[in-house]
Amino acid sequence: MSETSYYLTLTEVTRSIRMPEQTVITIVDHGIVDPRGKRPADWRFDPLMLITIRKACRLQHDLELDWPGTALALELIGQLQQLREDNRRLRRQLDRLTG
Amino acid sequence: MEFKDYYKILGVDADASQKEIKSAYRKLARKYHPDVSDESDAEDQFKSVVEAYEVLKDQDKRAEYDTLRQYGGERFEPPPGWQSAASGASGGEYAGGFSDFFEDIFGQAGHGSRQGFSRQQFTQRGEDIEMGLSIFLEEAYHGETRTITYQVPSFDERGQFSRQAKTLNVKIPAGVTSGERIRLQGQGAPGLGEAPPGDLYLEVRIADHPLYEEEGVNLSLTLPISPWEAALGAKVTVPTLDGRINLSVPAASQSGKRLRVKGKGLGKAGKRGDLFVVLAISMPQSMDSEESALWRQLSEKSSYNPRENWGE
Question: In terms of CB atoms within 10 Å, which of A69, B23, B58, B82 comes out highest?
Answer without folding.
Answer: B58
